[in-house]
């Protein structure tokens, strides 16, 4: 090992080059086994949609992730559910009880004005590390590239640690068309105008993951990754797959900001 010339890859505890998996109900025993082998490739774990609320032994699951140095947090849908019922304070207590100190503020379902989300970031960043999300799960809602850039930048400036570009676990909304095609011109515009070290692009499929790796570099931040795909993704990042084979000569050009 060590003989190949490969792209530079950040190491844990990394601040970019993040792999964020999505957990839709991984059994505890299976989770322990996978993390024992692959935890070095996983930085964050989103307990998907609102599933944390009905996950058996959720506290134990949170503890397992933390024991393997993986940051757990709840999906934005759960935040939006509490928020829609005017129970945000109860949600904050729920996260505190779970010893979860990251919170996602999203607008995937609810139409929460940007100004309101920025105020939430200002409030919540005192007690949590905040992740913002831009984009809707509704494929009928359209946003122009300047609006994406404005919201992403505004959320970062307000105090978010990272911002996520909506893509759903299916890759059919937000930065994707309903048929799964990536809105490439939108992504090119975001890459040119936003600090990509702090943007997590939802990329649930190998095709989309390789697109971002080839456009941004080995250390693109990728989210909604399936836990069984993390080894494959790491190989992709290092140019060990045909579609990323020539990554060794490519710098992280998008990280010039």
UniProtKB/TrEMBL annotation:
Query: Keywords on this record?
Result: Lyase
* Top-rank taxon: Bacteria
Which Pfam families does the UniProt record give? ComA (PF02679)
Molecular function in Gene Ontology: phosphosulfolactate synthase activity
Cross-referenced InterPro entries, in alphabetical order?
Answer: Aldolase_TIM (IPR013785), ComA_synth (IPR003830), ComA_synth_sf (IPR036112)
Reported EC number(s) for this entry are: 4.4.1.19
| Class in the EC hierarchy, top level | lyase
Q: Which family does this protein fall into?
A: Belongs to the phosphosulfolactate synthase family.
Q: What is this protein called?
A: Phosphosulfolactate synthase
């Amino acid at each position: 090992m060590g003989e190949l010339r490969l792209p530079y890859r950040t190491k844990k505890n990394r601040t970019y080059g993040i792999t964020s998996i999505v957990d839709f109900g991984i059994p505890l025993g299976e989770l322990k086994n996978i993390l024992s082998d692959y935890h070095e490739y996983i930085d964050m774990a989103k307990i998907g949609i609102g599933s944390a609320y009905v996950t058996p032994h959720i506290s134990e699951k949170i503890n397992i992730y933390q024991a393997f140095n993986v940051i757990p947090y709840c999906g934005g849908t759960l935040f939006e559910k509490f928020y829609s019922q005017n129970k945000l304070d109860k949600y904050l207590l729920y996260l505190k009880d779970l010893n979860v100190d990251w919170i996602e503020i999203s607008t995937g379902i609810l139409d929460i004005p940007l100004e309101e989300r920025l105020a939430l970031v200002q409030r919540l960043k005192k007690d949590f590390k905040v992740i913002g999300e831009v984009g809707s799960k509704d494929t009928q809602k359209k946003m122009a590239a300047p609006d994406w850039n404005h919201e992403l930048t505004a959320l970062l400036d307000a105090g978010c640690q990272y911002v996520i570009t909506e893509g759903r676990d299916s890759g059919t909304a937000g930065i994707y068309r309903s048929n799964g095609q990536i809105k490439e011109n939108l992504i090119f515009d975001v890459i040119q105008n936003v600090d990509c070290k702090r943007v997590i692009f939802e990329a649930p499929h190998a095709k989309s993951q390789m697109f971002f790796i080839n456009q941004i570099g080995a250390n693109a931040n990728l989210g909604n990754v399936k836990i069984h795909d993390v080894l494959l993704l790491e190989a992709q990042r290092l140019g060990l797959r045909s579609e990323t084979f020539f990554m060794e000569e490519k710098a992280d050009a998008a990280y010039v900001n």
